[in-house]
Amino acid sequence: MFTVGILQCGHAPEALVAAHGDYDTMFERLLGNDDFTYRTYAVVDGTLPESVHAADGWLITGSRFGVYEGHAWIARLEAFLRAAYAAAVPIVGICFGHQVLAQALGGKVEKFAGGWSLGAVDYTVTDEVTAGAGRTRLLAFHQDQVVEPPPGATVTGSTPFCRYAFLAYGERAISMQPHPEFTPAYVDDLLTARNDLLPAARVQAARARSGEALDAARVAARIRAFFLAARGAPEDPGDAAADPA
Fold first, then answer.
1. I want to staple 78 with a disulfide (CB 3.0 to 4.6 A). Which of 104, 127, 145, 156 is the partner?
2. What is the domain range of residue 103?
3. What is the pLDDT of residues 74-124, one digit of tens each?
4. Catalytic residue at 179?
5. Is 55 left (phi over 0), alpha (psi -120 to 50) or beta?
């Protein structure tokens, strides 16, 4: 079995956990238990793995925090991700995870001047490893964006609103701005829970698309394939001592 280490960078609103689960549970449902076991590290609460080799691969969750906010746990997470990347331990980043991986490796993230992206979004995706070529519809819930990808990253999916929505880092990492782990029911409830923070017109537009079919199952299959393809891959020379201090 492949052990996925979930680097949990935030929690679902407490009022929604009973109905939908927390973020780690959502990813366990998305990826399933046929090939994977899971170990959660509540990075947002100060818990980091003891080693980049404590799991076979790392999955970075979403968060309500901004990667640029300067919290100590974010800096520690970035150091851990740089070490895992150097050691060729496979990494998947989602939303905040997409952003913090990019920032850790030299990219730039900002609160986007265009505002929020909410609900179902159609992405143009060009990388079979990430999600299959063509249109990929997933749920979005973000205002921050990667505005400059790091050196070595390839843009594999985008929209006119979110230029760097999917990134690939060779065989070492893939990341995406949207949420394949979110369900329409969860997003509907989250729109209600965060209603005071969100522009009414975009909430209305998101609710209008809430019944549209999504490609989450296809994206989940690609994430599973990415992790499993990396199993047993040799480390680069000199990478074995790359754990952060």
1. 104
2. 2-230
3. 999 999 999 999 999 999 999 999 999 999 999 999 999 999 999 999 999
4. yes
5. beta
Report the number of distinct structural domains present in the chain: 1
Any idea what the CATH number is for the domain that residue 65 is in?
3.40.50.880
pTM above 0.85, yes or no: yes
In contact, 123 and 166? CB cutoff 8 Å = yes
The count of other CB atoms within 10 Å of the CB of residue 136 is 25
Of 20, 28, 95, 142, the active-site residue reads 95
- CA distances (Å), origin 23, targets 56, 74, 124, 126: 20, 17, 26, 27
H or E stretch covering 99: helix 96-104
User: Does residue 237 lie within any of the structural domains?
Assistant: no
Q: In what order do the strands lie in the sheet with 154-158?
A: 36-41, 2-7, 57-60, 91-94, 173-176, 166-169, 154-158, 117-125, 134-142
- Per the domain annotation, does 179 fall within a domain? yes
Residue 244 in any domain: the answer is no
> What amino acid occupies position 50?
E
Q: Which of 90, 199, 107, 174 has its CA nearest to residue 145?
A: 107
Residue 236 covered by a domain: no
